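Hey, resending since the last one bounced:
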Amino acid sequence: MADKVLASVRTKFVERISNELIKQLLDDLLEDVVLNEGEKDAILEENKSRADKARCLIDTVKKKGDEASRKLIAHLQSRDLMLYSTLGLSSVQPL
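The structure tokens again:
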């Protein structure tokens, strides 16, 4: 469910997220063991533009399933409530 919600907000997420928020979310997901150090580094180093980093982040988390997607959504809510609301994510139940 949450992975499908992420898929539905992908375009807006990519358009609106900041570089700083991407880094914060990567740190949060690393701490939650959703991502490992290599995945985090790959997202940051292999993608030059902010939009490409955002695409890679959301796609990587989506592929890991519903629980990983819910964690990303929960971290987005705590880090940037305005973006969370703009994306319409309040309908998803966090962990």
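The mean pLDDT is 93.

Sorry for the duplicate.
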